Amino acid sequence: MTPRSRKSLEFVLDNLVWFILLAVLVLFSAGVPNYFQLGIFANIIEASSVLGVMSIGLALVIIAGHMDLSVESVAALSAMTVGVLFCSAGIGLNIQLTPEWLAVPASLAAALFVGGLIGALNGFLIVKAKMNAFIVTLASYIWVRGLVLAVSGGRSAQDLAPAIRWFGVQRLMGLPLTAWLAILCFAVFSFVLARTPFGRHLIMIGGNENATFRAGIKVNRILMLSFIIAGSVAGLAGWLLAIRTSGATANLGTGMLFNAFAAVVIGGVSLKGGVGQLPGVYAGVLLLASINTAINLMGLPATSTQVIHGLLVLVAVLLDTLKLAIRQRLK
Amino acid sequence: MTRFEPLLVLDDIAKNYGAIEALKGITFTIGKGEVVALLGDNGAGKSTLVKIISGGLDPSRGTMLFEGRKFLARSPSEAKAAGIETVYQDLSLCTNVDVVANFFMGRELTKRIMGIPVLDEKAMEREVEQAMANAGTRIPSLRTNVEHLSGGQRQAIELNRFVHWGGKLVLLDEPFAALGVEQTRRGLEMIRAVANRGIGVVIITHIMQQAFQVADRIVVIRQGVVAGDVETTKTSPDAVVRMITGESLASTGAAG
Question: What pLDDT does B248 receive?
């Protein structure tokens, strides 16, 4: 094999999920009536924002060789916090700030703070108290959701302050600002992971924690930070979720964790840690949304989405194994 | 005693694991530019001692003087900051990243873009290329992930890493376990070259021949204490073996 064709094969393998996304979009555009429209594509991107942002935090922690099952509940708690503070109906306290736009940074800060706090607690128990990440974040997944129920009393908050909702209404080049925020998040964190020492250390910790410790990298600090980031980013996802639904209900976002996992795995992140890049995760999220849209347009029962998502995860893992086999033959 | 200017002085270093005494009080000195071979049977406490010097373990007792000052590394990063490099028995490489990333692990070169530190990949690659060329190590592509490299190539990366960074003291815990004859010869040459730069070297090995080839002094640890501390030129492999196994004749082995 010539070095050139080898290089292009490596490129395809590295970006496989993007090629799959492209193929799926072409396939649906050709086969599903009304699929090929700019509006549909904009819709896919829009529908990917909340899940996408949530997947970023999950992916970072998994790449570092750990696990965060709490992201869904954290997003729900942040959304509920924003809902309770800034909604005017239901259980909303309807806090008014002058000038009105102050509600935007205030609600965003509240959402990030709530998420970051739970992330810090997860991180403390896992990194400092050396508890198992799976168990700690499973517990958080349960108790944080419980807290959402307790805070709301099972009721909902409606009519989010217009200044905040503006982000979901205002469009730029056909996409709402919330979608742009998600894209910006992916751009920023992709850069951080691929090009900064912090990202490099995170990947290396996921590969061989002992070696990074011996090399003098402050492993605990970096892991702690990654859990805090995962929490805060989940909080941001909650903020976007509150905007999307213009409020918050107690069961908001239920089941998103599994979609986030699917997106992360489909996006090429290995659950063993140390492998994965964020653009791939975004492609994974877009792929899930594209399939959902196709199912909607074809008028299939919504229940079939779950079956398809499950199969997709299996295919993703299968592809991962296949990729590994191809790479091994390359060397 | 060493005829070199002292670099690291170990005084009565002990380590207990509960009731078990892994080290019962180790005292010896490593000089600047000196190669000390640390020998001893399995479980004698060699690796424990290396971990204490390199910040991986806290001693239960004893003091260390590094360049004349009291020294205790609480973590590998502290030891590194003081100028102590360690090559461990089980390799310390991240196989999921490329050669360049491993070479610069924890010491990445950065450039600032709008105040944000960004990895300077080009500069790092240039430096690794240079270091590998100097050492005569050939690796097909510095951008291949280490998982695709052979055991020998991996060990070569580790060795080149310590030669490049050097510092003041280098600890090598069985560095040649995965190397072939030719690579081992080159590795021993590297050690000599490093020592000639005035860097102290401690090498743990099981192979007597290697110790006699490269070391200025041989220190034998047996059952957690120093059983022999002799200049290489004033002893013989047989005498050293007797120190290691603890035969009664051994105590006379130390002439210096």
Answer: 54
